[in-house]
């Protein structure tokens, strides 16, 4: 097996030419629209859908981890006092899980260690979000599901069932996507026989950048700016002429529209029907049409289509989440994929060590400092 070039992955299969995404053998659309997030967590950690008993058990285990350790809270308070941005606070909080539970113990606990981290990410995110805004932290609600509790801890209000369902579809849609940058980062760390906390911390670092999980916030900012200026084409042409990239478009693997963007476009249409300011969704559709036309004009030799982050921005904004929360909300989901990859990597037990192509100078000789 050419292991270095092709890292084995039993979790997802992407066909970038046809725009298809298969998760553990299922078309992702079937899982995204039917499963609860707890069912998805079980599926990723056990590789099959849970029966009723198994679902009850995983739900109970997740609930047992639904708390924030005082030592981690202290660190987060410090970070908030220094106005550290949300995703960095989440990265700091996750790395501090070692304070709550020794990381070597987490790894020895295997799936339970993974559940601990999965349960902690939304709690750290929501708590740190409120600290940053100077609001009191909301204690976790032990009778709500994973997604509902996340919304509850962010807002302090029990969310409407239709909003919870929308969030679950979003979380299920973005839970896993092959060897993307953040998953690769997690697997590289895990491949050295390091630990889950270190792997997830590294993955969050990769997730943060605007070319990956940091894109949906700037998508929303861009849409809001165009709403203000009223000149969609002028705004977009200005971006192209300044050689800027349009956030929410393009993908390393997909050469057609990202299938997750198709699903989330429909989901966002439903969310925005429930809102008073419905016209914003119409603006986003007009922007997408104009952007795709201009991408063909400015980049005629490329197949640049809408990616998942474009409609992520519409779904999450439609749910009332501000753009500063988008990357961390993506992390609430993708951490499950990362940990499933970590478990796979642990089983493989082979270090990832890609080769590189040397591009430096040759035939140099030493020159003493006084002669340089
Ligand atoms: N806007 C303008 N030009 C673009 C865009 C874009 N969104 N995407 C690619 N291009 C251009 C590049 O400038 C480059 O042009 P050049 O060769 O003339 O210099 C060329 O297309 C590169 O095309 P690809 O090889 O298809 O793109 P690559 O694989 O290098 O990049 C990426 C993929 C990083 C996602 C890119 O499309 C991009 O920056 N998109 C915007 C950021 C974004 O939306 N990221 C989220 C991706 S989805 C996710 O990570 C969950």
Automatic annotation (TrEMBL):
Q: Which reactions appear under catalytic activity for this entry?
A: oxaloacetate + acetyl-CoA + H2O = citrate + CoA + H(+)
User: Cytoplasm among the record's keywords?
Assistant: no
- Which Gene Ontology MF annotations are present? citrate synthase activity
Give the SUPFAM superfamilies listed for this entry: Citrate synthase
Q: Which GO terms describe its cellular component?
A: cytosol
Report the InterPro entries cross-referenced here. Citrate_synth-like_lrg_a-sub (IPR016142), Citrate_synth-like_sm_a-sub (IPR016143), Citrate_synthase (IPR002020), Citrate_synthase_AS (IPR019810), Citrate_synthase_bac-typ (IPR024176), Citrate_synthase_sf (IPR036969)
**Biological-process GO terms, alphabetical:** carbohydrate metabolic process; tricarboxylic acid cycle
* Active-site residue list: 251, 309
Arranged from A to Z, the UniProt key words for this protein are: Transferase
The pathway it acts in is: Carbohydrate metabolism; tricarboxylic acid cycle
Which PROSITE patterns does this one have?
Answer: CITRATE_SYNTHASE
Q: Which family does it belong to?
A: Belongs to the citrate synthase family.
Return the protein name.
Citrate synthase
Q: Which organism is it from?
A: Crocosphaera subtropica (strain ATCC 51142 / BH68) (Cyanothece sp. (strain ATCC 51142))
